[in-house]
Design brief:
With about 500 residues, the protein is of the alpha/beta class. The protein is built from 16 helices and 25 strands. β21, α14 and β22 form a beta-alpha-beta unit. The protein starts with a strand and ends with a helix. Bound molecules: ligand UAG, adenosine-5'-triphosphate (ATP), 2,6-diaminopimelic acid (API) and magnesium ion. One of its GO terms (molecular function) is UDP-N-acetylmuramoylalanyl-D-glutamate-2,6-diaminopimelate ligase activity.
Length: about 500
């Protein structure tokens, strides 16, 4: 609980010009705020309502319904029409994204500053790297909270996530709960959307990781440079108060290095990097090699598959060393980390079968290519790739993904991902536009039928890769979310194959 006056005092003067306060504001200043709300529908008595500008509406326009639900006051964009003085406390603000983040951090008393925080950004590898960091840190007896695409969890608690990076109020509430539950460390995925919308403002990071930048989200960002600038914000002094860990193998990573003072680079092969690997041997059961770090060189072994996962584990070890974790202990933990749900996850059935099936979350051109390349050495027969592209998301990546699937797989099955409000057939056409006429993909709009067709038609020794949805246990058709899980679908098809 905190008084409205105290919360407003945390805001920089340029955001909450006191000169605009009227008698309604002054009379609400001593009221205790018991919660924060950004949705008028879920606003409770005692809350402070913050009206967020969105793509469809300005939440500020709903201040009356929030006040009716018991909100003590509403903070809204300056353009929002306000009530007559004396009727309700509605205070105009300059930048609601910033206001919301600053207020949330203050309300929860800056939890990130009571923990050692690691932020991970980049197009691909955030979920995998944050899981690795959580695992290494917990193995080294450091109680660690993890916030990301899959869930928010800390010792004794786990909840499903709705976004890769929560909105400011949820974020600060979760960090506060994690810290109170004993987490000394926190690791989180930070999306470019979150940085552009300032959801993470008020958080301070001891370590920030940059994995890579390749095409995605061009529905939201103007171009790749704009996307990069959003990611680069994490490495500015506003957020980073420690060491940057940056991928030297990525061209945008090399650009970022020029801008940061305290940086360790990592590379899967370049000995100029601070952390790098050599003598790598890839096998179906994982990878092994030598790990070179600022704390010495050690042999390592990991059950993870693919060169990109070596990059992820380098980033994770770098984060650990930056926070003074023991290298030997981390290397021991690496050998036991089995992977992340829905990332290169093998679908197994009993009795085992003569084909392999993998479910992976590749939903960008780069990750699709990496996944197919990583699997190739282990394919005895044909490599069959089942995939689609999400609706209401970057359309320009669709033909690129089509071209990549056709180049790197032996057979392609184009199907739906989450069509959302787009016409599923049109999404398929966008993907097919990138596939050369000489290739004859199977086109099946129903993902269930597509997975079944791929698995039932596979020949002994074939390798079926089902990409795009990974851990997701739903499919979004229109505005409806139905239960759908690639792993369950593959299991069922494998059983059917056994009996046919
Ligand atoms: C593009 C984007 O980020 N959109 C976000 C935006 O939605 P919007 O603009 O449609 O919102 P809106 O409907 O206009 O409403 C604006 C505000 O008014 C409020 N409102 C609205 C109506 C009402 O009656 N009362 C009321 O209070 C709403 O609660 C909201 O705060 O504001 C909403 C609330 O703040 C967000 O939920 C929504 O995220 C949507 C769901 C989303 O899917 N975002 C994705 C793209 C995203 O952020 N993804 C990244 C990961 C990307 C990666 O892979 O790297 C993430 O971090 O998850
Ligand atoms: N370092 C990496 N570089 C390139 N591709 C990767 C890397 N790590 C994982 N991948 C591929 O990208 C897919 C998504 O990985 P992951 O979930 O770790 O990424 P993410 O950055 O969290 O994605 P999102 O933005 O959706 O949260 C994986 O299934 C794999 O195919
Ligand atoms: N975080 C990603 C997830 C994409 C997952 C894919 N299955 C899709 O629906 O496009 C995004 O919001 O673009
Ligand atoms: Mg993720």
């Amino acid at each position: 609980m905190v008084k409205l006056r105290a919360l407003l005092a945390q805001l920089p003067a340029e955001l909450s010009a006191e000169s605009t306060w009227n008698s309604s504001t002054h009379s609400a200043l001593e009221t205790e705020i018991t919660g924060l709300a950004t949705n008028s529908w879920t606003c409770k008595p005692g809350d402070l309502f913050m009206g967020m500008p969105g793509t469809r509406v300005d939440g500020g326009d709903f201040w009356a319904s929030a006040i009716e639900s018991g909100a003590v006051a509403a903070l809204v964009s300056a353009q929002v029409p306000r009530p007559e003085e004396g009727t309700a406390c509605v205070i105009p603000m300059t930048d609601m994204n910033r206001v919301c983040a600053e207020v949330a951090a203050a309300f929860y008393d800056y939890p990130s500053q009571k923990m050692q925080m690691v932020g991970v950004t980049g197009t691909n590898g955030k979920t995998t790297t944050t899981h690795l960091i959580e695992y290494l840190f917990n193995h080294c007896q450091k109680a660690t909270a993890l916030l990301g695409t899959l869930y928010a969890r800390w010792p004794g608690h786990e909840q499903t996530a709705t976004h890769t990076t929560p909105f400011a109020v949820d974020l600060q509430q979760q960090l506060s709960a994690a810290q109170k539950a004993g987490s000394e460390y926190g690791v989180m995925e930070i999306s470019s959307h979150a940085l552009a919308q300032q959801r993470v403002l008020g958080c301070k990071f001891s370590v920030a990781v940059f994995s890579n930048l390749t095409q995605d989200h061009l529905d939201y960002h103007k171009d790749l440079d704009d996307y990069f600038e959003a990611k680069a914000l994490l490495f500015s002094p506003t957020y980073l108060q420690g060491r940057a860990i940056v991928n030297l193998d990525d061209s945008y990573g090399r650009r970022l290095i020029e801008r940061v003072d305290s940086v360790w680079t990592y590379s899967t092969e370049n000995s100029d990097a601070d952390l790098w690997t050599s003598d790598l041997v890839y096998a179906p059961g994982g990878v092994q090699g030598q790990l070179h770090t600022p704390s010495g060189t050690v042999p390592f072994q990991s059950p993870l598959v693919g060169q990109f996962n070596v990059a992820n584990l380098l980033a994770a070890v770098g984060a650990g060393l930056a926070l003074e974790l023991d290298l030997e202990m981390m290397v021991q933990a690496l050998s036991q980390f089995l992977g992340v749900p829905g990332r290169m996850e093998q679908v197994a059935v009993v009795p085992s079968q003569d084909i392999s099936v993998i479910v992976d979350y590749a939903h960008t051109p780069d990750s699709l290519e990496n996944m197919l390349k990583a699997a190739r050495p282990f394919v005895k027969g044909q490599m069959i790739c089942v995939f689609g592209c999400g609706g209401d998301r970057d359309r320009t990546k669709r033909p690129l993904m089509g071209g990549i699937a056709a180049s790197f797989a032996d057979q392609v099955v184009v199907t739906s991902d989450n069509p959302r409000t787009e016409d599923p057939q049109q999404i398929l056409q966008d993907v097919l536009a990138g596939i050369d006429d000489s290739v004859q993909p199977v086109v099946e709009v129903d993902r269930h039928a597509a997975i079944q067709a791929a698995i039932l038609k596979a020949q002994p020794g074939d390798f079926v890769l089902i990409a795009g949805k990974g851990h997701e246990d739903y499919q979004i058709l229109g505005t409806e979310k139905i239960h759908f899980d690639d792993r369950e679908e593959a299991q069922a098809a494998l059983k059917q194959r056994l009996n046919s």
